[in-house]
Amino acid sequence: MRGWVFEGQEQLRLYERKREFLEHLFDELSSCVDLRTALDVGCGIGLFSKCLSELGLKVTGLDARSKNIAEAKRRYPNIKFIVSDVEDEKVRELGLFDLVLCFGLMYHLENPFRAIRNLHALTRYILIIESMVSPARSPTAILMSECQGEDQSLHYVAFVPSEACLIKMLYRAGFSEVYKTTELPDYEDFRVSFFHRRRRTVVVASNIKLRSSLLQWTPEPHLLRPDIWQTRLGFLVQCVADFYGSLYSRIRLRSRIRAILVKVSRRGQR
Q1: Between vectors from CA 214 to CA 209 and to CA 220, what angle results, nearest 5°?
Q2: Is 59 exposed, middle or buried (0-12, 13-18, 19+ CB in 10 A)?
Q3: Cα–Cα separations (whole angstroms), residue 46 to 39, 73, 258
Q4: Where are the beta strands (DSSP E) in 3-140?
Q5: Tens-of-pLDDT digits for all 270 residues of the chain?
Q6: Domain segments of the chain: what residues?
Q7: Strands, DSSP E only, in the chain?
Q8: Which of 3, 211, 23 lies closest to 103, judged by CA?
Q9: Where are the alpha helices (DSSP H) in 37-179?
């Protein structure tokens, strides 16, 4: 019997931490909205599809690799699994699902924004994305090569978005609400260390307002420097000039207001 890359010792430890987190988050979300159907995007061999099914959802699992889907069907015959690529618009033909799960996939995609647009078209209420993210604070993405493996991108190259980029794409795809989670899975990649910045995040996007102690509403991010070709020195000089220009304008405005008040006061004394 062949071993699956998804079931290595470290991979299973990560899966368990994410599963525990998902079950806790689901309890919170299901108190906000009635969730009955779910789509597990990038399901691999069906581990999270099984988890969602055990939570009482009618689940469909989706993966671009036929070998993964064949194994998922063998393991969990009561769950529907299909071969499909989330970057292909044809995936929208599946219809709407109350909950869409996209764990461990976004950072393996060549076209993550196209995928998010498709995910929005598939989501009736809530989308949960767990992903590795680049460490940039701005909404940017880094093109990276990947090793050839069954859990890597189809063509072994991917754009890895920053957390800010991920959030911005979700808003621009059409979601009305985007949230960070106040807690994260208990695993090293979700924490900052002395040697590494945080590698992974969880973001929840929704078409309705959600209320939960696990969710923190997050606005759409914008570039720290609107002119991306401007040097840091130029940006600093511009900020200083804007500050003193604004200060000068406020002083002039106050002077004008003071002059008007003096005139009004004098007229009142006549």
Answers
A1: 55
A2: buried
A3: 11, 8, 71
A4: 37-41, 58-63, 80-83, 97-103, 123-132
A5: 467 888 888 889 999 999 999 999 999 999 989 999 999 999 999 999 999 999 999 999 999 999 999 999 999 999 999 999 999 999 999 999 999 999 999 999 999 999 999 999 999 999 999 999 999 999 999 999 877 766 666 778 899 999 999 999 999 999 999 999 999 999 999 999 888 899 999 999 999 999 999 999 999 998 776 677 777 787 777 777 777 777 667 677 667 766 665 565 556 555
A6: 5-217, 226-270
A7: 37-41, 58-63, 80-83, 97-103, 123-132, 141-145, 157-161, 177-181, 200-206, 215-217
A8: 23
A9: 47-54, 66-75, 112-122, 163-173
Rounded to 10 deg, the angle between the 9-30 and 47-54 helix axes is: 30
**pTM for the whole thing?**
0.83
Identity of residue 225: R
| Token reading at 177 | 């609400």
Which of the listed CATH numbers 3.80.10.10, 3.40.50.150, 3.40.50.10860, 3.30.390.30 matches domain 5-217? 3.40.50.150
Structure tokens at 40: 């597990």
DSSP alpha helix (H) spans, 64-156: 66-75, 112-122
For the chain, how many residues are written?
270
